[in-house]
Amino acid sequence: MLFTPSNELLKSDQRPAFWLRQLPWFILFIGTLFTILYWHHATDIQTSFAQLRFITSVEKNQEVANKRLASHESVPRAIQGLFNTSESVSENQWERFIHALDPDSRFPGILQLAFVRQVSQSDRDRFEQDNGVTIATPEVRDEYFVVTFQNNNKELASPFPLGFDLGTEKKRRLAAQQARDTGHPVLSLSFPWQISDRIARLQLHFWPVYRPGTPLTTVAERRAAFTGLVLAIYEVRPLFQDVLQGVNPEIRVEVFDGPAIQPVARIYDSEMPHQTTQIATDNLTVTARAEVEGGNWSLRYSPTALFLGLHKEQGILIMIPAGGFTLTGALSLAVWILISGRERAINLAIQMSSAYRESEEHLRRTVLHAPIPILIHQSNHNIILVNWYWCELSGQPKESFSTLSEWVKKAVSPNAQLSAMRLLGLPFEENHPFKEGELTLLLPENEERVWFVRSRPLGNQKDGEEIIISMAMDITERKKSEEMLHKAKMEAEA
Fold this sequence. Notes:
Blueprint: H1 7-10, H2 18-21, H3 23-84, H4 91-101, H5 103-106, E1 110-120, H6 124-131, E2 143-150, H7 170-182, E3 186-187, E4 191-195, E5 198-210, H8 219-225, E6 226-235, H9 236-247, E7 251-257, E8 266-269, E9 286-292, E10 295-303, H10 305-312, H11 314-340, H12 342-368, E11 374-378, E12 383-386, H13 388-394, H14 404-411, H15 417-424, E13 435-442, E14 448-460, E15 466-474, H16 476-493
Antiparallel strand pairs: 1-2, 1-6, 3-5, 4-5, 5-6, 7-8, 7-10, 9-10, 11-12, 11-15, 13-14, 14-15
Helix pairs in contact: 3-9, 3-11, 11-12
């Protein structure tokens, strides 16, 4: 028996006071209230972590995008330098210079390079005779912007073949004139173009070229010294695709032409139309600017379904209300049992004990069969529970260790053991009760495996020892992919 009642309590006419009979309901109400409040608190922590990781990923994506654009911008800048430092550039010099740059393999997204010469109406006949080309234009104007040199891209049926007059289309003519009169590069708006069996979005980047050694202070001086334009034709998708998707595939990236964030201005989307995820809140949406000299693109970052799925952690969050309701209900039942009488107390105590054991066993099975590595241990390093994934992925059988320090000595290289103990154990900051970081494991076959680990305290036991849970995610393949991408980028920038 849990208790021995007095004779008065056994009397049939003896009933508890009204407030005492309502005590179980009061405990149930208070416990439920605190469980809901704590569940909301845990959800807020999870959301804050997701926001922090999202912002970090966006900053990394933005850094990579800016480096890509700076690298690609150097190509027309280099060609501009060739013309600005030479009285004239022959076709042979042009071909050798383009061959040395190797834009087709080193600079994805630069579809074609060309040099556009300004030809006046009075010089048109002499230009056509000297260069063996006919200026392709349906109209007569005072000046033409004629494609004179271009690199040979076998895939591209060039929208601007040799002899083509770029000034035929008004917007491109205005962009060319703006570059000429200001002395600064100009990036045109995008336009569609058929390449093989696909429709590509192209943009033109104009770089003005002037006769060397001439003053360029005023518009008139720049017009007088102007000889032509270096033209870089960008294809938007390969310009952004590999660098943006390669950094973090969990982030959706949309690129818009110019400063406007509008569907009609969108020229690139890292997700296919049928994969697009609608985001219900703006707290995980970031806009940024990617710039080249003379123009810019607007980028909008938002989480994909993969990102949101990784940060929901539904199994862990559900344990909070489930555990809270279980404890509250158990306490309420215990109080009700104490008030109800000896026989009922015995029966309900047996039922509660069985329910507790089942709940404890359910929690134990949940941890053991969780699809991610989980370790629960005390602050004195004694292991309470470790699941199969933790042992299997770290290469350490369960029977080979009984404490956290033993596992660290076996699974982690000596120079990283101290940092591993700090990541998995005490102390925790009072206002930031969780830690996370990368942990490099050394498997028995000298194979390295990288985990992303998050640890947080669960509370104290009766003996004063704190319980700590650590969860891990294997990111070995992702790290290898990042290293390969970094190496490829370094080689491309070399």
